[in-house]
Amino acid sequence: MRLFAMIVLLLSLCPAPALLAAEPSISQESITDRSISLPEWKDWRRVFFLEDYNTRIVILGTTLLGMSAGMIGSFALLRKRALMGDALSHATLPGIALAFILATSLGMNGKTLPVLLSGAAISGLLGIASILLIRNLTRLKEDAALGIVLSVFFGAGVALLGIVQQMQTGHAAGLESFIYGKTASMVASDAWLIGSAGLTCMLISIFLYKELTLLCFDEGFAHSRGFPVVFLDMILMGLVVVVTIIGLQAVGLILMISLLVIPPAAARFWTEKIFYLSLVATVLGALSGMIGSAMSAIFPNLPSGAMIVLVATSMFLVSMVFGIPRGILIRKVRRYQLNTKVNRQHLLRSIYEYLEAHRMLAEKQIKPVPVTALYQMRSWSPTALHKIIRRAEQNDLIETVSGDQIRLTPLGLTEAARVVHEHRLWELYLITYADVASSKVDRDADAIEHVLEPEVIAELEALLIQQASSDILASPHTLEIDPGNTDSSVSQSGRPGS
Amino acid sequence: MNVIREALSQWNWYLDGWIIVAGILCSVATALLGNFLVLRKMSMLGDAITHAILPGLAAAFFISDSRSSLPMFVGAVIAGILTALFTEWIRSFGKVDEGAAMGVVFTSLFALGLVMIVQAADHVDLDPGCVLYGAIELTPLDTVLIAGWEIPRVVAVLSIVLLINLLFVICFFKELKLSSFDPALATTTGFNATLIHYTLMTLVAITAVASFETVGNILVVAMFVVPPAAAYMLTDRLGRMIVISVILAVIAAITGHISAITVPHWFGYGSTSTAGMMAVAAGLLFVLAALSGPRHGILVIFVRRQFLAWKILAEDIIALMYRIEERDPDLKPDAGYLREILFSRAWPTRLTLYYLTHQNQIAGSDGQFELTEAGRDRERQLVRSHRLWEHYLVEHAGMSTETIHRQAERLEHFTDRQLREKLNEDTNETDQDPHGSPIPPEELTN
């Protein structure tokens, strides 16, 4: 699995720059007279070897932020609170405005970072409390709680900002950029702040790893084991608040939300285990921060915040399509494989049942079967049936005798006998134990016969067949095959070798 | 009060009247659709669309090469619809949680829009703050002449949007209802739930964009969620929920504007953002509804639980006193003794004892209590319920005699006379419980 994480890392690295390189050209087409001068070698070198002090700070800061946001975000994602960062970042606005008003009216400089940050933190915590109260005390769902807190707090913040603008003593102009921060103007102290706060958050979440995992997957169970669920919930949300606030100040609202949401959502396609989820999300978050700000430093005119989001998005898209256990492509392939297997088994079983109905199984030679007879047994279209037959031929299960006649190979006969056996075992089980009418079992068994595990088969055999026998079971119901010149009760006695 | 009067002295029926009208139109149009968003667990869509329309605006600008409002409007609406569409795709194809899918889509679209705008920044001022968001305070300044009346353009636009939304909700009420609660059933009954979904999303996008452009984004985001959520706390029926949400939206719009003018005056400032205060007013209405809703209100549930707790405590006290009396007729327990056995807190016990005395079920002297006739009557019924339940649990639920006491202890509080009769019939009208104690009769005959 560790190797797997490395592969993920490499995979996500490769396509991202390629996709991003296409990004400027999109906007380039849109306006005719714009062209982006391609950066020269020295620009690349400047960024890649971190020669520039400013670039160094920005890349370091955004990478650290991406890491911590990715890790915290994966818990929020599993808790179905992906948009909590969104709600909380809006909820900080009234705190910021109020802190500014209070500090200014007390004669302090309202625009210092500690003042605004503490205001943001307090109103963020109030936002958390409101979300928890709404969720736990009313019948409203998570999304409504987030929406209410977001809009009402933001409205209050805007109303307070309206007051701030009338103040004569304060210089409110900077407050807006506190909300919509600018990454490129990040300074060393910002990077340090992000680094230390982000690292603390990551350490806390590693320390509480087991508890948070339990909280995310089974809140009720956690509660019954005596874990302080509400307290843990508060801690998780508090971590989101801290990461959001430090990020808000440094890189802005939208970027912060996307760093909390996109890397964990992308990582979800690569793993089913929460440990690897948070690991991959951390790596993806760090990579988007790194690559995004590097792109922005290399190409002129690309805002770094937006570039980080777009890098994360392209990683998300790649993961969604190519992700290994849960991506779209692998799921399609698996479904295709299952369909192929089901079709093949249906074909084999149809041929076998045809042979059985015509009493041709007992004979030494395997008899050919007319394809036209198979049409009647299932609702196959001619093209579909021919495709299935061709594929079965490639697998050496059947062979074409003449234009319209096909015949099972010895391998095919064994396989067909096994499939029929499993089908009838399940039918018998349904009749004996589930009290399903024998006229209905065929369809039910049809659905499940393809996915029966060998152990289940063994157990069914032990359960249903008292005498140890390798024989193929007789069908428990009459088969709807026109047996031609033989009598209709033939299916009851169609056991080979009996 | 002087301050408020002073603030309201600047009230101008023409200006403030139109602002309130615009606020009401926007709130009602938004809240109408918001009901279905809340029910479909898509409350955050309004917020997502506010951010996601940026690339639509930029693309419209690049294509039409102008800043006229129609292409911008169309571009924004298309981007809004795409947000809903992409969210749905990512949710269904990628099996990603709704909220996360929305988060991925709108942040990405916003970033894309930002990159596009920065590319155009040298040419023209396309600041999202200027292009995107109107302000409700400016409503009366921009007027159009319609049928000889001078009406603010905002009011005209929002009236049309409101009319469309109203028609949609009225005409497709049944379909909307069914597809919100059970899309699978909706599809099997023969109409297309997906089509209804996307029509709703299109209207949401149109409403949102029309409102951003005229009255700003805060009001829309708030009104999509808050009034419907408040209405959801007050009723269980969809029709009533919609009507209530509309009424709440109107109240929030009116009180919001008035408080935007008056409230800051208390602290010596001028009036503040109307849209912001409307959102706050809606929030306060929600708090009220959440607290006092008739069936789901927090206070109501709390009071109901408290009463139940007291009722159970009262019955436990009577039962305990009955048993004490059975064992030792001379012992008259006091409050402390009862509390020691029942593990109850001091003042609920005292309150319950007072209540029981008042009901004449116990009589107290010098802090010591004994049962009265009425109390013994009630107790006998309790014991009867308890022992009938024990009997029933053993006979019909197949439980063992050791485990039934706890269950019966719980069930006895919720058993009325009819249920006792039924239990008695179902348990062969026996007169002994599984532990061998006699089951007392319903009425004393002698």
Describe the structure.
The complex is a heterodimer of chains A (498) and B (446). Chain A has helices at 2-13, 15-30, 41-48, 53-78, 84-105, 113-137, 142-164, 173-179, 188-207, 209-217, 219-224, 229-251, 253-267, 274-298, 304-322, 328-357, 371-377, 382-394, 410-433, 441-448, 454-464, and strands at 369-370, 398-402, 405-408. Chain A has 2 domains: 2-25 and 38-326, Orthogonal Bundle (ABC transporter involved in vitamin B12 uptake, BtuC); 332-493, Arc Repressor Mutant, subunit A, CATH 1.10.10. Chain A has 498 residues and is an all-alpha fold. The longest helix of chain A has 30 residues, at 328-357. A 3-stranded antiparallel β-sheet of chain A has the order 1-3-2. Chain A has 21 helices and 3 strands. Chain A starts with a helix and ends in a 34-residue tail after the last helix. In chain A, helix 1 (2-13) packs parallel to helix 14 (274-298) and helix 13 (253-267) crosses helix 14. With 446 residues, chain B is mainly alpha-helical. Among the domains of chain B are: 2-53 and 132-293, no CATH class; 301-371, Arc Repressor Mutant, subunit A (Orthogonal Bundle), CATH 1.10.10. Helix content of chain B is 72%, strand content 4%. Chain B contains 20 helices and 4 strands. Chain B has helices spanning 2-9, 13-39, 45-52, 54-64, 69-94, 98-120, 128-131, 153-171, 173-181, 183-188, 193-215, 217-234, 238-266, 274-292, 298-327, 335-342, 346-358, 373-396, 404-411, 417-426, and strands at residues 143-146, 149-152, 362-365, 368-371. In chain B, the strands form 2 sheets. In chain B, strands 1-2 form a two-stranded antiparallel sheet. In chain B, helix 4 (54-64) packs across helix 5 (69-94). The longest helix of chain B is centred in the last third of the chain and has 30 residues, at 298-327. Chain B is elongated, with a radius of gyration of 32 Å. The mean pLDDT of chain B is 83. At the A-B interface, helix 2, helix 5, helix 7, helix 13 and helix 15 of A face helix 3, helix 4, helix 5, helix 6 and helix 12 of B.
